[in-house]
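User: Fold this, then the next.

Assistant: Folding the first:
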Amino acid sequence: MWKPRTRPDTFQGVGIEGLSWLQEVKERFGIAVATEVATPDHVREALFAGIDYLWIGARTSANPIAVQALADTIRQTTRSPKGVFIKNPVNADAALWLGNIERLEQTGVPVAAIHRGCNHRPCWSVAHTVRTARPDIPMLLDPSHMSGDAAKIADLMAKIEELSLDGAMVEVHPDPKSALSDNNQQMTPAQLADALDPILSRLCLVSLISTPNESEELNWLRAEIDELDDTLWATIAARMEVSKRIGEWKKDHGVAPFQPERYQKIREKIKEKGDYALRIWEIIHEQSLNEQH
């Protein structure tokens, strides 16, 4: 209904008019409906329309004053939602996320967390911290925002089982290319079904044999280190790209690729971090020189 966007000239949501569409869906199909809210007016309009669940997006979640205002409005409104979902803030701040959960719990309405990552990064350490601190509330995965790419959603969905999460919020559209926003991260209904089939099959099997996920903590830690590895390789690749540009500049200005004085200066600085750091840097430096030749 309301779509907080970076640019004012992009699609901002259909507004109040769309609430009647959700009412029709609820009445015709007998299913619960939900929408994102960002202001107290949004809360009042949604609850007056009989919307079952509200969620607070990552941009709003970054502002504790805004979240408190939403919580106060929920508490003061005659009609209460069945539950409120709170996404993690866009910045990697577990304490702020936990604080927002506590603010919403003061309404007396059930609260659930949605982990959507930070700027198309998983930020597993943030979710791990919150999950450890509050294992008593549900946590859902938002692989659509986490990846920003529909092709990556199926792989991320496997984390629901590995990390013992409680579900997912996935963006689905019958024709993503024609979507008014976020079309790169939207799946078709058929793609969602394909992604869910293996997960649901395994979950049914686990339910039948009642085997607890004893490796859950290890899976969280592995998820964190996998993310760090991805960041590390991306950083090294970016460094090599800059090395190529440096090499081009040196050729244009008649400067030799290898500069002994700078090499020794950086080497002494890296050496302070330990022998392992020096060995890694030597390999990176050697490859950088290769890129400059």
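Now the next one, as you asked:
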Amino acid sequence: MIALRRFLSQVPAVRFALVAGLAFAAAAQVQAQNFQTSAPQAVLLDAETGAIVFEHDGDRLVAPASLVKIMTAEIVFREIAAGKLKLEDEFTVSENAWRRGGAPSGGSSMFASLNSRVKVQDLLAGLLVASGNDAAIVLAEGLAGNEANFALMMTKRARELGLPRSTFKNAHGMPDPEQRATMREMAQLSAHIIRTYPELYKIFGLRDFTWNRIRQQNRNPLLAMEFGADGLKTGNIEESGFSLVGSAVQGGQRLIVAVSGLKTSRDRQNESKKILDWGFRSFEVKSLFNAGAVVGEASVFGGAEGGVDLVTRRDFGLPVPRGNQERVSAKIVYRGPLVAPVEAGIQIAKLQVYRGPLMVMEAPLYTGEGVERGSLRQRATDAALELGRVLIKSGFQKATSKPDPAKPAEPAR
């Protein structure tokens, strides 16, 4: 393992510092190029590290269909974890929920009766096993008063989780022109749920659910294939085809697959299984940094020290191809120099790991020890150095700029 410590101290005015040539076993780019899938959008993510093992158009915004219910579940799980909601609490099935998501709708439903009261634990099973649109609406109304307010909660929560592109307009996934998500973000959301709510996540893996004497099998086809799959969700609407986010564990390694745009449910099942099988067969996780490791330094302006250590808070590994060697690159990104005083334990940077042009992992970096303001002399010296860099940069830009030959010169005045 190679520490990146103090690399940035050599470039005190840097805004984006590149740390190239991090030696590490990884020929994944070549491996991925040799792997083919018929899924128009596909992502394979290692849950422990958050690294993207494989991606095919994974950042395309698509209609997520019932994959939306993964986000709906996250909102409910969060309320339960915070003690604001209990599994035994009950919500009433409104006429809106019954008519638009229940038996009269003709769509996927848990078949909750009009005006009945249903426990949250049963609504979650109806949502995630039976893919009940009525369950989604009941939960949305129960927590936010109406679907529109709940959708705002969903999008806001997505941004809090670092998912900048996905936008939610309802809790169930029925078509809406403004409701869009990417397979990358659906996989990342799923990894968050598995890591943050391990007990509640088990609801995704229930094989069947019975309500009002109607027994329904879990719609996730991977669960019946006995290869370590244990949960998450399917989706299907005409606009975006058949989709699935699924997770499986083999040999202590958890992978998450997200696919969209398949033509049939069989295609969805086969491609999801194929991608997971390939990932387990081809990759293993190697340690990259241990929790608390110093991986770099950010420059500090006007401080008693010229820089502050950047540290990780948890172990980080990288999925690497079995038996291959290749160099990957890492980049520490932050806006700087920082201005003293600088507190300890503040997230101010990110470590981005790349295979070729593909960013496969991003990890937050935190300040180590704090940095106090420097003496008047130290601050004056830093100010002079910063002014010199600005002048040098300005002079370089003027010297290298050339007139546009397509643009006529301005007449003298």
